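Prompt: I keep going back and forth on a fold encoding question. Comparing notes only helps if you start from a blank page. Show me how you would write down a chain together with its backbone fold. Please set it down just below, with no commentary around it:
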Amino acid sequence: MSYQVLISSTPKDRDLAENLAQSVRDTGALVLSVEQTPTRGEAIDFDLRRLIRKADEVVLILTDRSLNNPFLLLEMGAAFSLRKRLIPILVGIDESEIPPLIAELGYVRYANLRGYLSELEQRVRSSTSEPPVAAAH
């Protein structure tokens, strides 16, 4: 079974999400969907819970345009409650603007994606390798 990554963003950040999706695919991971988080007045995609359950990790793209989007916060909460690996990717956000919860969880700056992608590639490889044989006691 392939390691699966859900990428979530607002419609305004779609280009960033598509670029990230290609980089994630290059690691060997399967991108479930480049989700577009609804903005105020749009319907919430009820498939979101299903996608989050299916994902091995959830990546949220947070920009100065989306940082306070309540739907991204909802997605973050859903991923957290399902104990998924949650990776906020920050783009154009000053240190002083980072919400305490995201600072505490940890985050990756878009400019520093190389390190995240390298770690992701390791997780992909380890998820596809055979489990070790248990030693007899």
Remarks:
- The beta strands are 4-9, 30-36, 57-63, 85-91, 108-109.
- The longest helix spans residues 113-128.
- Helices lie at 14-26, 48-54, 70-81, 100-105, 113-128.
